[in-house]
Amino acid sequence: MKSYPIIIVLIMLIISGCGNEVSTSTKDGSATITMAYLDGTWSRECELTSTSTTSAKVAINFFASSDNATKSTTYYTGTICYNTNYVLREKINNITIGSKTTTSGNLIITKYTAVILDITIEPKSSALATSLNDASFCGLTSWSSGLETSIAGKTCSSINYSSVNDGFRDIVQMDSERTYIRTGNTSDIASDGYPSTVYYNKYFK
Amino acid sequence: MKIQLYLVLIFLFVLPSFSFAKYNTFEGGVFTSSWGIGLQGSYLYSNEILFGGDIISATRSIKSSGTYVSVDGEITVKTYEGFARYYFRDIEYTDGFFGQGGFAIRSWKMNADYVENSTASKVGSIKMEWSPYVLVTGLGWHKMWENGVSFSSSMNGVWGGKMNVDYEENLYQFDSSTKTELEELDLPLNFVIFLGYSF
Predict the structure, then answer these.
(1) Total number of domains constituting chain A
(2) How many CB pairs under 8 A join A and B?
(3) Which of A149, A180, B178, B197 measures 20 to 30 Å from B72, CA to CA?
(4) Dmax (CA) of chain B
(5) Residue A23 and residue B163: Cβ atoms within 8 Å?
C-alpha cells in the first residue's frame, strides 16, 4: 500500500499517451512568373515624392514578345499628379526570368536579369528644358521639351545612372491571383546583386 | 507536463481527505475539458467497473489583424468517446481513484487563411486535420455525494493519433518557428473537470 504514490506517479507519466504523430506538407501556391504573365502595363498609384510638394506615378510596360520592358516614372509639379514636369524612362531588354526563391524575410519572389537598353529623361515643358540647359544638367545642354535625352552612364544630381549594356538585376513578386506585382527595393541590394526586399507599393494592371 | 504534475499533487495530497459515501448505478453530467465542453453518461457495472460515453464539442474562431496581414480561420473539435473505468477501491488514501481506457472518434479540423489587408490577396493558408480514430487512456478521481451530486477530474492521453498539417504558401513562406509552434498544438492530452448527478 505504501508504494501507491510512486505507482501513481509512474502510471501518470505512462498514461499520458504517445500523442499525435505529426506529418506536414507544404504546397507552393505562389504565382509562377513568366514574361507572358508580366506582359502589359502595370501602374502604381500616384505618390508624393520625398519633398511632399510634388508627386510621381510609376508604370512598367513589359513586352513579352521582345523580352524587354520600360519603367516610366512621370514626375508632376503638383501633389496629386497634375502638371506633368518630366518623365524618366529606364529601358531594359534581354529579360531572363530566373528561379523562384525567398528573401531573408521569407518573401516568395522571382529573380530576373536584363541588360540596360537606355535611360532617358523627357522634359515636358520648355521652361524645364531651358532650366536644365542652363544648369547643364547631367553635363548636357541639348534638353528640349517633348524630346527624350539619354542619361545612361551619366551622373545627374549625384545619382550615377547605369550605362547602356550594363547588367540589370531585380526581383519581382506577383500575388497568386496575378492582380499585382511588386519590384525590388533598389536601395537594399544583397551581396548577389539582387534587391533583398521589395517595395511595399504595388503595380496593378 | 505541468498539468500532470498538479494533478499528481492533487491525487497525493488533496484527495485523500475525501472518500466515497455511496455508489449509485447511473450518472450523467457536464464537463469542461481541454478538448471542449461535453456531456457524459455512465453506468456503474460493479463496485470497481464503470462504462461510460461522452460527446465533446468546441468551435473557436481564429481572427487576428496585423498592420499588413490578417488571419481568419476556425477550429472545430467534435469528439465521441466510449470508455471503461476501473476503480482502485483499496487505496488507503481514497476509493475514488480510477484508471480508464477507451476509444474516441474525432472530427477535428482547423483552417486559417492569411490575407493581405491592402489587396485581399492570399498570403498563405494552413489546414490541420487529425485522424478520426484513437485510443484514449487516463487517470482520474471521482466522488459521489449522498445527495447524488458527483464530481470527477481526470487526465487523458491519446494513443495512435495522427495530425496532418498542410501549409500553402502564396506570398510568404511560413518560417520554421511558426510551423513548430503550430505543430505543437496537436492536443494530445485532455484534462477533464466533470460535474454530474448520480441516481
Answers:
(1) 1
(2) 138
(3) A180
(4) 67
(5) yes
A177: containing domain: 39-204
**Closest to B169 (Cβ–Cβ): which among A26, A175, A177?**
A26
- Nearest-CA distance from A125 to chain B in Å? 36
> Using CA atoms in the order B28, B30, B32, B34, what is the torsion angle rounded to 10 degrees?
50
Q: How far is residue B172's CA from residue A128's CA, in Å, rounded to a whole number? A: 44
- A-facing residues of B in 46-65 (CB < 8 A) are none
Residue A187 resides in a domain? yes
Within-domain flag for A45: yes
3-state secondary structure of B5: helix
Q: Is the complex ipTM higher than 0.95?
A: no
Beta bridge partners, B112, equal B73, B126
Out of A5, A22, A180, closest to residue B186 by CB: A22
- Residue B160: exposed, middle, or buried by beta-carbon count in 10 A (0-12, 13-18, 19+)? middle
Do A26 and B175 form a contact (C-beta atoms < 8 A)? no
Q: What is the SS3 assignment for A5?
A: helix
User: Which residue, chain included where needed, has cell 485532455?
Assistant: B190
Residues of B in contact with A180 (CB under 8 A): 119, 121
pLDDT tens by residue, A51-75? 888 999 999 999 999 999 999 999 9
In-domain check, residue A8: no
- Collect all residues of chain B within an 8 Å Cβ-Cβ radius of residue A102: 173
Residue A185 lies in a domain: yes
Contact B167 A26 (CB under 8 A): yes
A110 neighbors A30 (Cβ within 8 angstroms): no
A11 and B101 Cβ atoms separated by less than 8 Å: no
- pLDDT, tens digit, 9 for 90 and up, residues B20-62: 445 788 999 999 999 999 999 999 999 899 999 999 999 999 9
Q: What confidence tens digit (pLDDT) does each residue in B70-103 have? A: 999 999 999 999 999 999 887 776 778 899 999 9
Mutation pick from B79, B87, B121 vs chain A, by most beta carbons of A within 10 Å, is: B121
Q: What are phi and psi of B133, to 5 degrees?
A: -115, 125
Instruction: Judge: B172–A21 Cβ closer than 8 Å, yes or no.
Output: no
